[in-house]
Design a protein that fits this description.
mainly alpha, Rossmann fold, two-stranded parallel ribbon, about 10% strand, globular
């Protein structure tokens, strides 16, 4: 699993369902012409995120040889000028529209891992190129 540079770049992480709800809040309650930043108040170093993903996968689907996935982490050259930290101030969205994330970083990353593990057929279709953009998760 390649990581850029030393893995110490910092990003603000947000569960996808919370991101969708933030967009919905802006569409339903936001003021026309205003800008609302969406963030999770969950800044983490990229390496910390990758290590957490490895730990969750090891707990849910251990490798056959018993090796921990952290041993698969490698580092590749970072692109020149890559920002060390991206920060989001979502206080306007929270204050004016009453939106806040419902998932913590920990619960959101666990839900994400569980979704991908439950949808391995779709993941395989992405990798082999046979997925053509059909919608998933629609109720019959």
């Amino acid at each position: 699993m390649p990581g850029y540079g030393d893995g110490r770049n910092v990003r603000d992480w947000l569960y996808v369902g919370d991101h969708c709800e933030a967009i919905r809040a802006v569409l339903e309650r936001g003021r026309v012409g205003e800008v609302y930043n969406v963030g999770g108040d969950a800044e983490r170093e990229n390496l910390t995120v990758v290590e957490r993903i490895c730990d969750l996968l090891d707990a849910r689907r251990p490798l056959p040889d018993g090796r921990g996935r952290r041993s698969l982490i490698t580092f590749v050259a970072d692109r020149p000028g890559h920002d060390r930290r991206y920060a989001i101030d979502a206080s306007k969205l929270q204050g004016e529209l009453g939106w806040a994330p419902t998932q913590s970083f920990e619960s959101g990353i666990a839900l994400t891992i569980d979704w991908y593990l439950a949808n391995q057929d779709w993941c395989a279709r992405i990798r082999d190129g046979s997925y053509r953009g059909e919608r998933l998760g629609l109720v019959a």
